[in-house]
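Hey, resending since the last one bounced:
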Amino acid sequence: MSLIETATRRPARVALACAALATLAACGGRERPQADLAAAQVNTIGVNSYLWRSALETFSFAPLLQADAMGGVIITDWYANPQNPAERVKVTVTILDQDLRADALRVAASRQVTQSGTWVDAPVQAATVQKLEDIILTRARELRRQTLSS
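The structure tokens again:
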């Protein structure tokens, strides 16, 4: 098919498509389209807002490298407690869902200690990561209760 034939047929196709859409639009009556209802329920962030706010509050003491509300990822920079400067930690929080559930949250931590003036990786106890998750979940539930009661 030549370019001229394609250009000649295109306006006819566009007119046909517009007529079909106009016909479908008239079928709805006065009811609100389902797509509008769904759009009204979309969150402004991609994950559960209570988990997001709780995680940000929990790690507000540490400098942030990344905070992506749509992807649900918070990454802190290395943080050394002033009372124990020979140890530092870095935390990654991943929020996996829009529901406030325990399995919608994942925390990973890295720890380093100084040995002869050099930072060396050290193990993080599993109980530490579990405790951080519990703190975030507990605070998220509190935020939700506060919102619902007001």
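Residues 108 and 131 are 12 Å apart (CA to CA).

Sorry for the duplicate.
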